[in-house]
Amino acid sequence: MTVETQQDKELILASYQKLLASCKRSNTPETKAMIEKAFHFAWDAHRGVRRKSGEPYIIHPIEVAEIAAKEIGLGTKSIVAALLHDVVEDTDYTVEDIAHHFGDKVAAIVDGLTKISGAFNQQTSMQAENFRKMLLTLSDDIRVIILKIADRLHNMRTLSSMPLRKQMKIAGETLFLFAPLAHRLGLYKIKSELEDLSLMYEHPEDYKNIAEKIRNKEAEQELVIDQIIQPIKKRLNDNNIICTVIDRPRSIFSIWNKIENHKIKIEDIYDLPAIRVIFKPQEDVPEKNQCWNIYSLITDIYKPKPERIRDWMSTPKANGYEALHMTAMGPFGKWVEIQICSNRMNEIAERGFIAHSRYNTDSESELDKWLKDVREILENPESDALAFLDEFRLNLFSQEIQVFTPKGLIKTLPKHASALDFAYEIHTDIGNQCIGAKVNHKLVSLNTILRSGDQVEILTSNKQKPKPEWLEYVVTAKAKSKIKAEFKDDRKRLIRAGNKILEEHLQSIGLILNSKATKKLMEHYQFTNKDELFLNFGSSKLKLEEIEGIVKKKSKNKFIKYWKLQLFGSDEKKETPDKLDSKPEIDKKKPFLLEETMSEEKYKIATCCKPIPGDDVVGYVDMANNVTIHKRKCPNALKLMSSQGDRILEANWTSHRLMSFLAIIELNGIDKIGIVNDITSIISKDHHVNMRSIHFESHDGVFEGLIHLYVHNTEDLNNLMKKLIKIKGLDNVRRIENIEEYS
User: Fold this and answer.
1) Residues catalogued as catalytic
2) What's the domain range around 670?
3) pLDDT band, residue 365 (cuts 50/70/90)
4) CATH number for the domain harbouring residue 403
């Protein structure tokens, strides 16, 4: 507790006045009095407490309330709940106290926002449990989720005051769950800001480089946008259309994501410029007709790309988004994306669920259907919080398709959904009894991937029952949860059987099924948990003949060394099992140094991404204090940061010159005599790098190549790639990040 200064009071009151100015919907004496009461109640409860940044704690709930009011457009009860959202968690006040002073509805919202403070099973992630509890309130009031997003946005805006380990944890969780959740609720601006802020802390160098390139091209971009906008404005004004035409620049995260996914340069993102035409609709003329009229006028100026037209008016996105998108060839030979929408559509695009619910009071929207699905999943949540978190995240799909029933009804599904997903979308019983489907009147299998516009008829049989492999066919959370519910008992029986089979077999050859043996088997078969291991033995998918060799196999150093250990001498002593099992506690508050002389017992390199010295990495500490090193951009690392952030630690490389690490580079260019010799000469002679394998293919005058090589660190690899790209005829050289696919 600290003393509140006069300067603190002035800062608090100034923040509160700023909040009041944002409360446009709370303009009656009663609502203003309620907000005033909540402000003083929260101020008194948090008095003397400060945030990590040093400012009075009450500033945080005030800022969250302002985000709720100004940026999302929530009403009085939500603003009051935002002001009080940390009172129950951080002070002696209870939910009953909140209900007594502010009513049951506000108390229910605050309760949903209050984190769990009890003790949990060691295997359970606190983060995942907190998120599950918050979601369970969804069946009562969606404002809980929206306020949680507002709370997270303010935490991200003030994340710089937190230590690096906390920054990675919170940023990972934000990118993994909260940004997709904001997208699903139609909060586009907030979603984009959450993604950008997450990128700023997870990959600061990438963020800085893209931001700098955008700044350097800003003047050129403004010129291009102005050249695009002016003719459109004139044409629409000449046709008596009242409108605003604004620039819609891509977010830094979306640029980074496209660069990472498509392995392209920022200059190659062809639809980087984007504008939005927002028109005031004429009365008695459908907005959809007016959008197409504007489209017609714009295509008189700029030629459209036919395959890049998106009609989100006839079939709105699941988050309520409506607009007409087109890509056209603008001045200077630049492609530009043009979004056409009415004032109403634009408000829904910016404010999402809240604006959508104001305009749609009668019919059930896609968002309402999604909420129904979520509530259905929440009725029987997974016992494992992490599995539940994964199931829920499946429902946060951002890319959607629309498919038709035989009667012409539209169903919205995530991209890559199968015919089996569609069956479960219709009804659980239809999904459980599904034996096949007809897509566009053609018979197909259950795992056929659907495309937007398909018409699907499901074929069923009373004798059909769900099968375990069906889980590999579906992508929707609804389908997965229904399939799991059907054979959950069978799964438990097979897990118990597998455990017993494994234990008896090991005993028959003089071994014990302990944690060390289980760990070796899980690593060999690449399972993330022992239940999956036992399940595969219980269902006879794995052979017992291999077990002895796997369990008895000694651990080998995964690093390839240029110099053998005996060259330097070795006085390593064999460690007893007891010594191996009692590893010292890792101090997560200090950076974990990846020293070259460390044995593999100190840390291991993740097989999913195989980072090399110089890569941005994080460490994950498991229950046995083993440290696994992942690339920060690795999808598995992102998942761990979001669900088990307390086990994440900062990791830094030291100098690495003795050990070499496997890397893969991909090359392509114009095929010419001697180019392969030029490439291999630079690698082996100029840079003295060992190659494990080399593969080249040539077709139609173009060649593609993959080279597996051993390098000390990213600096050596980057220098080599810079030298290679100078070879005449070589068009592109890049490092393969997902090394598993090519090993």
Assistant:
1) 89-90
2) 661-736
3) low
4) 3.10.20.30
